[in-house]
Amino acid sequence: MFRRKNHSHSEQEGEDQQHKVKELRASLEQLSGRSAQYCTDACLKRYLEARNWNVDKSKKMLEETLKWRSSFKPEEIRWNEVAIEGETGKVYKANFHDRYGRTVLILRPGMQNTSSLDNQMKHLVYLIENAIFNLPEGQEQMSWLIDFTGWSITNNVPVKSARETINILQNHYPERLAVAFLYSPPRIFEAFWKIVKYFLDPKTSQKVKFVYPKNKDSVELMKSYFDVDNLPTEFGGTATLNYDHEEFSRQMAQDDMKAAKFWGLEKHPTGANGYSAVEVAPEPESLALPATARA
Questions:
Q1: Region (Disordered) spans which residues (predicted)?
Q2: Which residues pair with 260 in a beta bridge?
């Protein structure tokens, strides 16, 4: 009896959520092109979850994202534009997933090699988009592993940069981050964190985990999320962390071609109308994104 009751409650909750998704979609202006391609039901659901299923607040948040995407054009960024930012491997997609099948981004703030905030954000957005594009079917979130090796107060990420990262992740990629592990941060980082935490909303803040190699609970937490054979030694595993910029660049170039095809941005010879496919993206045949490319 109780099982049937719980199942019924779950079904009712699902129906209520689907109704909210339809309500949110009906409240939006007529979408076209990439905006329509972006706004799948799964996408709308993430914005609703981020705003506790309040349709008006979700609509405002989504409209701000659509404006941002129209201006920033994350789907048009190509690796060759940001490759210089990735030379030290300060941010890159790992060659393994966590136990839940999530794409893993490795961040190494101690490897910062440039000073342009705009280019740094462009590089980060490119990798977030790439991580999402490479999510396995049925998975919508990614995990972040942050390695503090080489980090010091002299080469730390400026507050402005950290604030912009948080702004982009929270406001334009809601419910995309599953968990972020801050691995063995130095004591001096605590003061920096108190400032950064001010910009985090409670839901995002709960996803940030401080882990320390000599702390038993931290070790168990990492094991619950990762296979130690895949996890680099820098994060308490047994694998070797070896970033090969040339090999990573080849992978990204291949992904760029797949992403361009998905968004209808393949480069074709100029047509009779004088425009290339990059300048005028064709309307998508289907508004439903494949599970591996929801954004």
A1: 1-21
A2: none
Amino acid, res. 285: E
Q: What is the 3-state secondary structure (H, E, C) of the chain?
A: CHHHHHHHHHHHHHHHHHHHHHHHHHHCCCCCHHHHHHCCHHHHHHHHHHCCCCHHHHHHHHHHHHHHHHHHCHHHCCHHHHHHHHCCCCEEEEEEECCCCCEEEEECHHHCCCCCHHHHHHHHHHHHHHHHHCCCCCCCCEEEEEECCCCCCCCCCCHHHHHHHHHHHHHHCCCCEEEEEEECCCCCHHHHHHHHHCCCCHHHHCCEEEECCCCHHHHHHHHHHCCCCCCEHHHCCCECCCCCHHHHHHHHHHHHHHHHHHHCCCCCCCCCCCCCCCCCCCCCCCCCCCHHHCC
CA pair distance 35, 12, nearest whole angstrom: 30
Using DSSP bridges, classify how beta strands 103-107 and 142-147 pair: parallel, antiparallel or unpaired: parallel
Q: Would you tell me how many other CB atoms lie within 10 Å of the CB of residue 237?
A: 18
Taking only the tens of pLDDT, the chain with its 295 residues reads: 445 555 567 787 788 899 999 999 999 988 999 999 999 999 999 999 999 999 999 999 999 999 999 999 999 999 999 999 999 999 999 999 999 999 999 999 889 899 899 999 999 999 999 999 999 988 999 999 999 888 776 666 677 888 899 999 999 999 999 999 999 998 888 888 888 888 999 999 999 999 999 999 999 999 999 999 999 999 999 999 899 999 999 999 999 999 999 999 876 443 333 333 333 333 333 333 434 344 4
Placement of tokens 């929270």 in the chain: 170
Instruction: Supply the pTM of this predicted model.
Output: 0.85
Residues 6 or more apart whose Cβ sits within 8 Å of residue 88: 108, 111, 112, 113
